[in-house]
Amino acid sequence: FAQRELAREAEAKRKLAEEEEQKRKAEEQERDAERKHLEELVAQQTKVLEEKLTQLASTMAPKTTGAAGSESAQFHRSGIATVGESSFQGIPGVGFVPQRKSRLRLVLGLCVLLLIGGGVGGFFIFRPHAAIKPSGPNNPRGPEAPIKAQLIDIPGGTFQMGRNDGPPTEVPAHAVTVAGFAMDKTEVTNAEYAQFIREANHAPPEQWGSIKAPVGEELLPVSNISYDDAVAFAAWRSKRDGVTYRLPTEEEWEYAARNGNKDNLYPWGNTWQSGRAATAESGVGASQPVGTYAQGMNAWGVLDLVGNVWEWTSSKASLYARTGDDRLAQQKDWIVIRGGGYASSAKGAFPPGPVSSTIRNWEPPNYKNPYLGFRLVKSSS
Predict the structure, then answer these.
(1) Residue 257, in any domain of the structure
(2) What per-residue confidence (pLDDT) applies to 132?
(3) Residues 221-245: tens digit of each pLDDT
(4) Model pTM?
(5) Any idea what the CATH number is for the domain that residue 299 is in?
(6) 123-132 long-range contacts, CB within 8 A, separation 24+
């Protein structure tokens, strides 16, 4: 009996030792995976700094004379800023210096940045790490904290949809009643969409080149997204949160953009004001991080309803006026998009017309464009 007890005890110790060894190896593999990920981040940051150094160095050629034919004049006509004395005006402690010294200081400064970046990266790479539980091949670093959009409650009501003095797709004004709903405060970001890509094994936007959002662009609205992509994202988020999300109808979208029964032409009022939306008037030339134009929010606090990127709705293409002119014969299954984008203008010609809370267009469900993104809503309980 004693021998059997000793044998069982020895076997238990052996199994415990094996488990501890397996745990140690797993922790080591996890640390290696995290170290590799951080090394990739440092490499990406270093590459960005090197590219900036190359770009800045290329702009420091000696000045040429002749305003009309100079390279600088051509850049300014193209909207491209050049580095010169005016670039540093208004910055405390920075004065314009001869070009050779300026270039030397720039190179030295960037070298210091590279050294600092390398040191910080090295600290994160080689510091001790706690064990992380793996959760799958696409996410060896463990489960991510979900990125959840803030939703804004919008009470239902009746409003005038469309306008009588707008393009053919926006006339006539007509009464519409919508039930209460909650809407994403911002357009869906690259960061949240990246989680969807990894967890749902969905194809990323073409311009990304990987399952990760481009570094530094996490808060941009996701774009180049088809209607079908947006619907798939809504299904994923609904399953994650246990709540039914969906694309807004165009009636809900315009109700929010016009502040309900106030029937405003813009989310902030009835008069166009520059600096309240990312449009052609702002001169940005690309989408901006969501919420950049806080002064353009609607009465409930929803942001970027006008400009930045167009937004998918769930509504099929239609004309408000029944004129007998069947302009939708070949487009009846296309999907309405709303809001305009960063290239839209308050003075834009038809189609689609000037950017406002009433602007509308439609595209095929599989259509993708860098100007086009989306946000979600959920019905009020």
Answers:
(1) yes
(2) 35
(3) 999 999 999 999 999 999 999 999 9
(4) 0.64
(5) 3.90.1580.10
(6) 124/38, 124/42, 125/35, 125/38, 125/39, 125/42, 126/35, 129/30, 129/31, 129/34, 129/35, 131/26, 131/27, 131/30, 131/31, 132/30, 132/34
